[in-house]
Amino acid sequence: MDFMVSKTLCISGFFSNNFKLMYNGFLFFFLLLFGQSSSAQSYYFYEFKVGYPQKDSVTCYAFLNISADGTAIGRLRYIEPLTGVDCLYQLDLADTASEAGLQDGSDSVLYLTLVTDPVNLHSSFGGALDPDLILPRFAFKKTSLDPDSLYKPFEVNYQYLRGNANVTSWFQPINTQIVSLNEGNLTSDIVKKFYFEQEDFFQFLFKIDTRSIPLRKKRASMHVICIAATLDNTIGVTSKRDVQHIVNLYSNLAKQFGIPFLLTEISGSNFSKEKVELVLANLTPDAKDIVIFYFSGHGFRFSSDFSRYPRMLFRTNDTQRREDINLGLEDVYDIIVKKGANVNLVMADCCNEDVGPIVRLGRGLLATKSIGFGRAKLNIKNAENLFFPSIRNNILVASADKFQLAAGNPSLGGYFTFSFMSELEKNLYTVLPTDAWIKILVDTRNTTRRLALRAICDKVTRTRCDQVPFFNK
């Protein structure tokens, strides 16, 4: 990997004195651009100096690519002071609460911590770890008490891996500088200091053709039927957030695809079984169209039900009987598939057992300032496979298996909905394999289950929620 100082961008030359002078000015320019946005990936650049044991201090550089689901891929680079070896490591990270937060349930401070050993990419240690490897964690703090506020990076801590033994103490760097790369300032000169030009991530950002979806595939419309119990006194807050997420995601996608976006939202005082049945009866998609049906609310099942999928409940007062005001998710799927659209995605974020009065809420996760939908680069190949396939795609998804509850968080919405959106964004806005829906749905299942374990489903036994989505794909 070329490590020469660039004449055009200060960050290109990490270890020169001239670079240090130029970088300080460039950092100030970056910080002026620091503002809020939402959705898609978050990118951050770190510089921090550590006191390497029994050696000179070392200046480390890190690049983080943070996903909406609280996970991140990082690259860590530094010059080992004793040998002068250029070290480059891949970091697989996930969010966790601070020590105090784990005790009291608060999440004002979250850390991105290592979930596996760093992977050696560029040093001359023959694939083995440096015996004094630096193990960082990246701290983020909520910008306000508002549940919708974002997390802002504010410090780095580090440990050492000495041979096979971890040093358990966390140390503070001598100094730390952090740059947000979410305002159009993510350049190839920055990224190539952490990624080889032939790597998929670099190719996707800077080399892959940015052509749009072919015109022949644009002769389609996106029909979105979004139903949510936003006035419910137990889950209304999370259902309202779910609607916002779904509408924002698909409206932006339709805009990027260059196709009509036809939204029908049934929420608030319009929330009823009859309105849903009327919309389904009047749905007339063309053969090239995309139909998305989404429900966020209460769900249940009868003991005599054969279907593995839940019934969606449309109760708005205590006098209504569940027998009269429900729709089976699988029944709705059958109706929509018979309409003949090219892509049919039917999903519900709801419980799959008797309706209960208690809300199953867990803690949130790392939500940072991001590059935003407007500037995020769409993975055209993945988008075509997902929404413009040559063979029809009919997909039915439930957020919880039989006799399971669905959990969520007021700032995130339902864990299932948030997980699905995060995985869909990963597939559409980063470089990933194009096995498309299968990967998205399997990863959604895994992420939902991981997040649901943060919620208590039985307050007597303190049992964590076991929520496992399933699908027919």
Q: Would you give an account of this structure?
A:
The protein is globular and about 75 Å long. The protein folds into two domains: 197 residues, no CATH class; 253 residues, Rossmann fold (3-Layer(aba) Sandwich), CATH 3.40.50. It has 473 residues and is an alpha+beta fold.
CATH topology annotation of the largest domain: Rossmann fold
Mean pLDDT, to the nearest integer, reads 78
Q: What is the helical fraction, as a range of percent?
A: 10-25%
* Proportion of strand residues: 25-35%
For the sheet with most strands, the description reads: 10 strands, antiparallel
Q: How many strand units?
A: 23
Number of domains: 2
State the end-to-end distance.
42 Å
Examine the secondary-structure arrangement and name the CATH architecture of the largest domain.
3-Layer(aba) Sandwich
Number of discrete helical segments: 10
Classification by helices and strands: alpha+beta
Q: Catalogue the unreliable spans.
A: 1-38, 100-105
Q: Class of the largest domain in CATH?
A: Alpha Beta
Rg on CA atoms, Å: 24 Å
The backbone outline, from C-alpha atoms, is: globular
